[in-house]
Amino acid sequence: MLDVRGLTKRFGSTEVLKGIDLAVRPQELVFVIGPSGSGKSTLLRCCNRLEEPTDGSIRFAGQELLAPKVDINAMRRRIGMVFQSFNLYPHMTARGNVMLALRKVLKLPRDQARAEADAALARVGLGDRAGHHPNALSGGQQQRVAIARALALKPEVMLFDEPTSALDPELVGSVLAVMRDLKADGMTMLVVSHEMRFAQEAADRVVFMDGGVIVEQGPPSQIFGAPTHERTRAFLSRVLN
User: Where in this chain does the record put each ABC transporter domain (predicted)?
Assistant: First the structure.
């Protein structure tokens, strides 16, 4: 589904990604962990060209995203993304926020956009909050609206960049529950997060990054139970204890 090869990214003289190779299979949940500054979010943002890679290849469903003539906006419709910040329009209801992409991007008629927005909100457990404005919603509910907005475009893969890091601890569970449901529905997901218990329970594969490289990867039982690299062991000893 997503095949990254030799990916590098430099900001000036600083090389943030140093030749990343990573493949994500259909319906797989790949969880990326690592210390701050290891390049995790940059990797995610390169996967839909919110950051332009310096070198390498990113193929999505067999198509090269870095090809000169690729329609990146069309490709982004197939690659949903959820950020740490919710980025909701405060003057619009939850329904209005979800409808906006359907109207502007997919050019759907208003009635169809409304129906699909309501269906997406119901999918994340907010069917009864469609008419509420963001300031009347909790942080967890706002993040679920952001997920519904991405899901409404019917993406083939979802990228999650620290989706719970801005939430109070008691609100995290509702967002992770939605992500569990998406996995159960067969959604392909690439997730950057510090939610280690969720990674242990839900991920098919865990990738540990440090210093702009993938240090090791494997099933959660291996990475959390018997990591082979000292850098991985040191990181996990800090975050799990």
Answer: 2-236
